[in-house]
Design goal:
heterodimer; A: alpha/beta; Rossmann fold; six-stranded parallel β-sheet; 22 strands; B: alpha+beta; Alpha-Beta Plaits; 2 domains; five-stranded antiparallel β-sheet; about 30% helix; elongated
Chain lengths: ~575, ~180
């Protein structure tokens, strides 16, 4: 059948079982939105307040559901507004397909209205990107984009479709997903590849070497990284950890890869890692990292990182091997497959003495309670007490993010949505919207700071319009807390441009302006009353929690320092 | 692994599509490397191009660069070619001023020694072409600098491995890179 490019795009989305798209219309993407109008019984579109919010929402949708997120934007500013969201998804390996439309072919290269070279701009922040200049190439490109976004190490893929390609007609041949790998771009990729992508073998010899290393180890430590979460390898990881009987340190992106309350879990590792995780890393004789890329927030000083240990790196991306930390052995593969194979080969071990040593150090930070004021710990305790255990938590970036990770013991992959690699302030609200749309049965909360919240609070309009009952907790310390913490410790208390005391808005009045509920709280009783109210109200609710300006995230190791050289304990 | 900075040669087999070259060259500039020499052309298959790039880097750096290149989707394979195991050639054209016949005869003499071709002779100038590894073209350039070189242009080094090994050979490492790109 002959269809327009815009209709072909809709059909291709349906092939991929896409039922939700986040986006924002504009001049060049009008044909697509016109087609969407006719497909609105099959594809739900969520209109955000700003393209960045749409990008984060598609990302949050992908992270929380494990499916590919989809995001639309128009050319020019529409497309450039996506870039922070694309980079965020790229750094955290989140599968999102971004689709923008550019000016028509006859206007390309003439600095036409809202024309921008968005594929040039997004080249370094996407897994792959494409320009589609004719309708004949559209279906093949969309199929390749989806396959690439979700396969291997997942990541964002960008498609820029010229407006003429959305209006022209071409023959469209529906193709079931299973056959996408036989034709076009994907077919060519399959033919030139060195292995069968559908049933890749994990190298037996590599596995055997690792098993021997495990058998020889007396003090093994595992790192649960983001690869366990993205690969949904949590069950395999748990079985592996229990068999090896090794403590498990968790990275920010690995939260939920193993249940945080598991007796083997030592908590987060790295800059704000627990005493137990960081001390274990320094003392272990074998470090097995699964899906962790040894970023500078984990391997703060790569040369002295796990200096007594043989380091084994299990990762899906070969380019991560020996990139940041030199390793003694590596296995390239998807965490789920590699761990399933390993579990067949590993003999149950007992490392009680080593565990006793590791767990003699603290696995959580003790924060003092203050009676007449709120502390971050009290806020998080009340949240944990009053909201369901499987609540999805989206955070922004800063102190509130670290406190949340430390306090909540995340249970399952996709429960925590946070910008780890890119550290995007303003990520949380969009991500929470995406998560709630993708998981309508779950409670979704957004934890933020006053600095982060100001960045993208325009998405409250989306919360209101779609009636998404997200509770936003603002950890309001009237400062950019994490930067202030660094200024206190490293810059001799010169608080350059971080104090926000006199700045609006009144967050509760802001909530009202958007037709949402809200409350200022400054003690536990008020907080818990507000949570009660928020849960009952059925719409978005902002709880503005006043906390002290000089609360700090502890422990802390300085950037580039040895992992046990705590600046704060 | 040595930390010595030296000229390193990377052979890269890529999709023959627009935009691929800019993607590759961007990676070098982003990582802070200046490309010393670059040559691109079609291969025995119309759908692929081969890029030969030379950079100043130590062994560790060039390995990381190669790994980042292998991650790119249009890149099929990357090979580090060492001087010992590969054949390297570059074509250089020199246009030299010849104010009189004595100079012209001297330059023709140099050309003969280096087995360079004389491809254009005009009143006042002579143009030579020479093919070889850098050692040869550099030596010839040194001699020609005694005269006035009006223009000099290089194609960039191209290189092939000696023996029957090729850039397309399947290795365990190549398989590992393909895995991270697109295993289902």
């Amino acid at each position: 059948m002959k269809l327009t490019g815009a209709q072909i795009l809709m059909e291709c989305l349906l092939e991929q079982e896409v039922d939700t798209v986040f986006g924002y219309p504009g001049g060049t993407i009008l044909n697509v939105y016109d087609a969407l109008y006719r497909y609105n019984d099959k594809i739900k579109h969520v209109l955000t307040a700003h393209e960045q919010g749409a990008a984060h929402a598609a990302d949050g949708y992908a992270r929380s559901t494990g499916k590919v997120g989809v995001c639309f934007a128009t050319s020019g500013p529409g497309a450039t507004n996506l870039t922070t969201g694309i980079a965020t998804a790229h750094m955290d390996s989140s599968p999102v397909v971004f689709i923008s439309c550019n000016v028509a072919r006859n206007l390309i290269g003439k600095d036409s209205f809202q024309e921008v070279d968005i594929t040039g701009i997004t080249m370094p922040i996407t897994k792959c990107n494409y320009i589609v200049d004719s309708v004949e190439k559209l279906a093949d490109t969309v199929r390749a984009a989806f396959a690439i976004a979700k396969s291997g190490r997942p990541g964002p893929v960008f498609i820029d479709i010229l407006k003429n390609a959305t209006g022209e007609k071409a023959e469209f041949k529906p193709l079931p997903q299973a056959e996408h790998y036989t034709e076009g771009k994907l077919g060519a990729m399959m033919r030139r590849s060195s292995q069968d992508f559908k049933a890749p073998e994990v190298d037996e010899k590599d596995l055997k070497t690792l098993v021997d290393m495990i058998n020889a180890s007396k003090k093994p430590l595992l790192i649960c990284g983001g690869g366990v979460v993205r690969g949904r390898a949590h069950q395999e990881f748990l079985e592996f950890a229990e068999k090896v009987d090794a403590p498990v340190a968790i990275t920010l992106m690995g939260a939920g890869g193993i249940c945080g309350r598991n007796p083997l879990a030592t908590g987060m590792i790295g800059m704000h890692g627990t005493q137990a995780s960081n001390m274990a890393c320094d003392a272990c004789d074998l470090l097995i990292s699964v899906g962790c890329r040894f970023s500078d927030r984990v391997a703060l000083a790569p040369k002295t990182f796990a200096k007594q240990a043989k380091i084994v790196h299990i990762d899906i991306d070969r380019a991560e091997i020996n990139k940041n930390v030199h390793t003694d052995h590596h296995i390239v593969g998807d965490a789920k497959r590699v761990l399933a194979k390993l579990n067949e080969m590993v003999q149950p071990a007992d490392h009680s003495d080593w565990k006793k040593y590791v767990f003699s150090f603290k696995t959580e930070t003790e924060y003092d309670d203050i009676d007449d004021a709120l502390t971050p710990k009290q806020i998080l305790s009340s949240i944990a007490k009053m909201l369901p255990e499987d609540t999805v938590v989206a955070t922004d970036v800063g102190q509130h993010q670290m406190w949340s990770i430390q306090h909540f013991r995340f249970d399952y992959p996709g429960q925590l949505l946070t910008s780890g690699g890119f550290g995007t302030m303003g990520f949380g609200l969009g991500a929470a919207i995406g998560a709630k749309v993708g998981n309508p049965d779950k409670t979704v909360i957004h934890i933020t700071g006053d600095g982060s919240f100001r960045m993208n609070c325009n998405e409250l309009a989306t919360v209101q319009d779609y009636g998404v009952p997200i509770i936003t907790f603002v950890f309001n310390n009237k400062t950019l807390g994490m930067v202030r913490q660094w200024q206190t410790l490293i810059y001799d208390k010169r608080y350059s441009e971080t104090t926000l005391s006199e700045r609006g808005p009144d967050f509760v009045a802001l909530a009202k302006a958007y037709g949402l509920g809200g409350a200022h709280v400054s003690n536990v009783a008020e907080l818990e009353a507000a949570i009660e109210e928020a849960m009952k109200c059925g719409h978005g609710y902002i709880i503005d929690c006043a906390i002290d300006m000089d609360e700090k995230v502890r422990p802390m190791v300085g950037g580039g320092s040895h992992i046990t050289d705590f600046l704060l304990s | 692994m040595s930390n010595e900075m030296k000229r390193q040669t990377l052979a890269i087999l890529v999709d023959n599509e627009s935009g691929v070259l800019s993607q590759i060259s961007r990676l070098f500039s982003r990582k802070g490397y200046n490309i010393e020499s670059l040559a691109v052309g079609a291969t025995e298959h119309t759908e692929t191009s081969r890029i030969t790039i030379e950079v100043m880097a130590d062994d560790d750096q060039v390995r990381l660069l190669a790994n980042q290149l292998r991650k790119l989707f249009p890149v099929h394979s990357v090979k580090l070619l060492t001087a010992e195991t590969s054949i390297r050639r570059e074509l250089v054209l020199y246009k030299v001023r010849t104010p009189d016949s004595t100079v012209r005869n001297e330059i023709i003499g140099i050309a003969n020694i280096f087995r360079a071709n004389i491809i254009d002779v005009a009143v006042g100038s002579i143009t030579l072409s020479v093919i070889g590894a850098e050692s040869k073209t550099d030596a010839m350039e040194k001699l020609l600098r005694e005269y006035e070189i009006l223009e000099l242009v290089r194609t960039g080094v191209i290189a092939l491995e000696r023996g029957q090994e090729t850039i397309k050979d399947e290795t365990k490492e190549k398989g590992e890179f393909d895995y991270g790109k697109n295993v289902l």
